[in-house]
Specification:
alpha+beta, five-stranded antiparallel β-sheet, OB fold (Dihydrolipoamide Acetyltransferase, E2P), binds zinc ion, Aminopeptidase, 18% helix
Length: 318
């Protein structure tokens, strides 16, 4: 077993400090698959719980192939702090989503330089996992090609959202879409909520990744937990927004199965003290994502549902 730690240089700050991306290579030194796992292209999305756990596990148990772990893929987005909140989804300089700079450009902007270094390393692997968190959410995988459903069946995260990233131009510069273009299989996993420690969510994702290692014969199958028998894919989501500026409380917990007519959330309006306005669902689906706040302006995103129309159950692999 060989474990190497690299610091990939991406640039310098005005203070002269070097900006580097840490990369761990855990190599069994035996022929096999190479999986690349990346955390934290967006600052504040703490999926590093998973990287820590996987690192400890792999260094003991990897018996074939190689794993690359990048625990913090972006040395700039994590510096974007305001009080206790790390606001690392968008580049404050360019106003752009940090995950829209791929495949990157080593002569380009800071974001493109970071993307270029990440992409160069990621495309050497034969499978790439890009780990994120999503506002307040349950874990769900995002996949960009129907062919990846075979991999979803192995990893067996309960909810899986299909986004056709080649057709939908707003995704064309994500890491996933660019890896598709160079023929590297990949998946994005939203591992739960921003800036949270959610043991059950971590467990679901770590177990899924271990099942993938096992299917690729990189670890012994005795280390894996049995997958749920069935998982679901969704191709459509719907967003519910705030009808007014107000405070909002959710009516249902994340992960709840919602029926048409169910209360989704309650609005508390200062123009009408004492009255509470309920907003009801017009759809059947799963409450998978909510905004991490109670404070809303008119038209802000409140919750999103994965819609039951266009859903497909998949039987998982034993
Ligand atoms: Zn993200």
């Amino acid at each position: 077993m060989k474990i190497n730690k690299y610091r990939d240089f991406v640039g310098t700050t005005p203070m002269g400090t070097e900006l580097n991306i840490l990369r761990y290579e855990i190599d069994s030194e035996k022929e096999g698959h190479h999986i690349y796992i990346q955390s934290g292209i967006h600052g504040g999305e703490i999926t590093q719980w998973i990287a820590h756990e996987l690192f400890l596990f792999i260094k003991k148990n990897l018996h074939q192939g190689k794993v690359t772990l990048v625990p913090c893929a972006n040395p700039v987005s994590w510096t974007q702090r305001a009080y206790y909140s790390t606001n690392g989804k968008f580049d404050f300089y360019m106003g752009k989503d940090w995950n829209r700079n791929f495949p990157g450009n080593s002569e380009g902007s800071m974001g493109e330089k970071i993307a270029a270094v990440l992409f160069e390393n990621a495309k050497k692997a034969d499978f790439v996992l890009d780990l994120h968190t999503s506002r307040e959410s349950i874990p769900f995988a995002i996949y960009s090609r129907p062919e990846y459903e075979d991999i979803l069946k192995i990893i067996a995260i309960k909810y899986n959202q299909f986004i056709d990233m080649q057709k939908n131009s707003s995704y064309s510069n994500t890491m996933n879409a660019c890896l598709d273009k160079v023929g590297v299989n990949n998946l994005c996993i939203e591992c739960g909520s921003h800036d949270a420690y959610e043991p059950n969510n971590i467990r679901e994702v770590v177990n899924g990744i271990k099942r993938l290692f096992s299917a690729y014969e990189m670890i012994d199958s005795k280390f894996t937990e049995i997958a749920p028998n069935e998982i679901k894919t969704f191709a459509k989501t719907v967003k519910y927004t705030s009808p007014m500026g107000c405070l909002i409380r959710l009516a249902k917990p994340l992960g709840a199965e919602i029926k048409k007519g169910d209360d989704l959330f309650y609005c508390f309006d200062n123009n009408n003290l004492g009255s509470i306005v309920a907003v009801q669902s017009k759809h059947d689906g799963v409450l998978f994502k909510a905004s991490p706040t109670h404070i809303y302006w008119s038209g802000d995103d409140v919750v999103q549902l994965l819609l039951n129309e266009d859903t497909k159950p998949l039987t998982t692999v034993d």
